[in-house]
Design brief:
heterodimer; A: mainly alpha; 19 helices; elongated; B: alpha/beta; FAD/NAD(P)-binding domain; 3 domains; five-stranded parallel β-sheet; about 20% helix
């Protein structure tokens, strides 16, 4: 096979965290050191040479990028300082970009120069939403007036749900398109690397889900043990908030609160309330933990790229503004203070939502699919217990 | 050897280091009529080369070549050999260096041969440095069969007070001077040749390769001694742990070399050294299977043929992949490596593992005080364009093999001779 290197791809990879890639001399210390690498076609040595050659399509279809949990052991032990762990992270970013639909959205979160465009999109979204509110509710108050801030008056739940539900739906569709392209690519180029017995679909999905829930693969990383705690906090914080929001949305959709005017605000000890508050606190604490860890990188296991910081900042904004929004309600502050806090919160949530398929956020489904694919193809760790 | 009347002056060259490069430079200069002072820190000449079983590619023992050189030294009154000596200070410039040499006591005078009774008076033992510490030797010892000068050495520090008093009463008393102390010698020389050589990289630094915790993980230096007739086993290749002959032997290339966490450079000789040692094994243990794990096999020039011959040997397998970890399992050692040509992780079990450790310049760890030389970031000497009367040869300049060290030494000698004759 004649290899046609994609020079632009290699250069872009160097820009997004893989700057030491070309130091690699293929000794494979990385593949051996990796506690998660399977016996046949182990990673990340093969990824290092594919990346060196700029084999874009080969790498995009590679499930192994997502079997890596970025512990950084390979980067620590690499005799050349080629930092395979950082290259793997950069390659994951490239995969997300590769399968992004529509394609231009994949680029927007990868460089700070696109921030103004992102801001414009969001301002437009919020603007239209508020305009609809004004047209729908003729007697809605003007933005910054009012002795204290009233959410329902500022933005009716039905408007909120209409917009956010539509945006979510669109993004889930886009994500599904990316996911299906990823799956087809994996099936075409990365099948048959099996050493263990293959599993059926049901067992693969359940097994992969259990791995995600327990972070059991993450747990096998040596250098990254601390990072796992941070990731668990963020992960479960996010899950808590997601479940809370889903329940609230469904209830509102069913007009349950309207028929039960005394439902809101939920009492402090209402299970959904507890879940939401705990989720928010866990998310924030996790963000602090991860932020601090990434800043100091105590074991020098990995460099953080713009995409890492972008996603982390976004999660932090969602958590922080969410808590502020709750404080606004509890303290009944004037609209002039309450409005901006709420608007920023809506913006942060909106960003998180529309970037589901495009930021690092997308790793949640890419990883899940890759883990299912690995199990379907008998690509478990040699000494991992069978399901 | 202890007389402090070394010839010195405008026609004198100082050679620091009595290994193959230093011996060669000293002889080249002395045989055209220069006076030479050859300073060696050990008790005998020969450096790293005398410790080898055979050298590549001809696979001849170093003893015959060294013996010829020793003869030339013996016959040449212009060479002054100072063993157990170190250069402690250098001042001055080309044509006129003032050098201070510190001579440590051997305690053995050479005025009379050491007697059996004297040898028997000592029972304390010290690690045998000649055999890389793989065995021990009495504290009054001949460093090795072919040692030049052929004199015993007394490790006085290791003696008990009873041994000292016994020695004082044993004949011939003039053979040993227990009251000898370190001496200082000041000489004036026109040029200096630095041939301070190398030492093996400390394999204890390679945590994951388990050298410090597994007796059957040895270095290539230790393998030379195991294979040598003058070595700790008389040339039998056996496992240090249980004395068994190994059935499966692994060579781990680049053990510390080409490694940003250890020696970032290629040590240049280890590939050929392992290929050579694989041949020792093929001769001595014909049934043993041998695996060589490598990143790249670097056999330059005509050495390539040496490699091809082993490639054709079905008892020798080559696996392209760096061994990342060695762990003991039962009485064996398991190597973790990826066969990068097949894309498969291997866990292979061996009886004996040889680490191809690299070359560290002595100059890096023991720089010579007052010597105006430039070294690179690893401690290898880089000669400047302007000739300042100080020249370097052999592994003091870069990791290199015996034949190139010899050529280096001749070149350095020529430059030094030009300073003397000017």
């Amino acid at each position: 096979m004649l290899v046609k290197p994609d020079i632009a791809y290699i250069e872009d990879l160097a820009q997004s965290g893989g700057s030491d890639l070309k130091k690699c001399y293929q000794c494979a210390t990385c593949s051996v050191i990796c506690p998660l690498s399977p016996e046949l076609k182990p990673y990340p040595r093969k990824e290092m040479i594919w990346a060196s050659w700029g084999l874009k399509g080969r790498l995009a279809a590679d499930p192994d990028l997502w079997l890596c949990h970025q512990c950084g052991d390979c980067s620590v032990q690499c005799p050349r300082g080629a930092r395979p762990g950082d290259v793997m992270a950069a390659l994951r970013g490239k995969t997300i970009e590769h399968f992004a639909f529509p394609a231009f959205m994949g680029k927007l979160t990868r460089h700070p120069r696109y921030l103004p465009i992102l801001a414009a999109i969001s301002a437009f979204f919020i603007g239209v939403m508020l305009l609809v509110q004004q047209l729908w509710e003729q007697d809605a108050p003007l933005l910054f007036l009012g002795s204290h801030f009233e959410y329902e008056q500022f933005l009716a739940h039905k408007v909120l749900i209409l917009f956010f539900f539509s945006a979510s739906f669109l993004m889930v569709v886009f994500a599904a398109i990316s996911a299906s392209r990823f799956w087809k690519a994996m099936d075409k180029l990365s099948s048959g690397w099996s050493t263990a017995p293959v599993e059926d679909l049901r067992s693969s999905v359940i097994g992969a889900a259990m791995d995600l829930i327990k972070h059991s693969r993450f747990h096998r990383c040596d250098s990254g043990k601390q990072r796992r705690s941070g990731h668990l906090l963020v992960f479960y914080g996010f899950v808590g908030l997601f479940v809370t929001t889903s329940i609230a949305t469904v209830l509102t959709f069913l007009e349950y609160p309207l028929n039960n005017p005394d439902l809101y605000p939920l009492g402090w000890f209402h299970p959904v309330k507890i879940l939401g508050n705990a989720g928010g606190i866990a998310l924030l604490a996790g963000c602090f933990y991860v932020w601090n860890y990434r800043r100091n990188s105590p074991d020098h296991t990995g460099e953080s790229s713009y995409s890492d910081w972008f996603f982390l900042a976004l999660l932090f904004m969602v958590g922080a503004t969410g808590i502020f929004t709750e404080v606004v309600r509890l303290t009944a502050v004037p609209s002039i203070l309450g409005t901006p806090v709420y608007v920023v919160h809506l913006l942060a949530v909106f960003w998180l939502l529309i970037f589901l398929p495009y930021t690092k956020f997308a790793h949640i489904f890419y990883r899940f699919l890759a883990m299912i694919h690995a199990r379907l193809n008998g690509r478990r760790l040699p000494d991992a217990p069978a399901q | 050897m202890t007389e402090n009347t070394a010839r010195s002056g405008k026609d004198t060259i100082l050679v620091i280091g009595g290994g193959i490069a230093g011996i060669t430079a000293a002889l080249e200069a002395a045989e055209v009529g220069c006076n030479v002072i050859l300073v060696e820190k050990e008790a005998y000449l020969g450096g790293r080369v005398v410790r080898m079983n055979q050298y590549f590619p001809k696979l001849c023992p170093p003893t015959c070549g060294l013996e010829i050189n020793y003869q030339r030294i013996r016959k040449n009154p212009r060479i002054k050999v100072l063993t157990l000596s170190e250069v402690s200070k250098v001042a001055g410039q080309k044509g006129n260096f003032n050098v201070t040499i510190r001579i440590h006591p051997r305690y053995v005078t050479g005025n009379a041969p050491i007697s059996r009774a004297q040898l028997d008076a000592i029972s304390s033992e010290i690690p045998n440095d000649f055999n890389s510490g793989m065995d021990r030797t009495r504290a009054l010892y001949m460093p090795h069969d072919q040692a030049f000068p052929h004199l015993h050495v007394l490790a006085r520090y290791a003696l008990t007070s009873e041994e000292i008093s016994r020695l004082e009463e044993t004949e011939p008393r003039e053979a040993i001077d227990l009251s000898a102390g370190a001496e200082t010698l000041d000489v004036n020389v026109a040029a200096i040749i630095v041939a301070t050589g190398w030492q093996p990289y400390d394999a204890n630094n390679l945590d994951l390769l388990g050298y410090s915790s597994n007796a059957d993980v040895i270095t290539n230096i230790e393998m030379e001694r195991l294979a040598a007739r003058t070595g700790p086993t008389g040339g039998k290749i056996i496992r240090p742990s249980d004395g068994r002959e190994p059935a499966r032997v692994a060579f781990v290339q680049c053990a510390g070399s080409r490694d940003a966490n250890n020696l970032p450079y290629c040590s240049a000789v280890c590939c050929m050294a392992s290929l050579k040692q694989a041949r020792y094994l093929r001769n001595k243990l014909p049934d043993a299977s041998i695996s060589i794990f490598y990143i790249d096999i670097r056999t330059i020039g005509r050495h390539e043929e040496f490699y091809y011959q082993l490639l054709a040997d079905d008892h020798v397998s080559f696996v392209k992949g760096k061994v990342a970890r060695i762990t003991p399992e039962a009485s064996n050692l398991v190597l973790d490596v990826e066969d990068t040509l097949g894309g498969k992780l291997l866990q292979e079990s061996f009886d004996l593992v040889v680490l191809a450790t690299g070359v560290v310049p002595n100059q890096a760890r023991h720089p010579l005080p007052g010597l105006d030389i430039t070294t690179d970031e690893y401690g290898f000497i880089v000669e400047g364009v302007v000739r300042n009367g100080i020249y370097a040869a052999g592994c003091a300049c870069r990791p290199t093999d015996v034949s190139r060290s010899v050529k280096d030494a001749t070149a350095a000698a020529l430059r030094a001779i030009q300073d003397v004759r000017r």
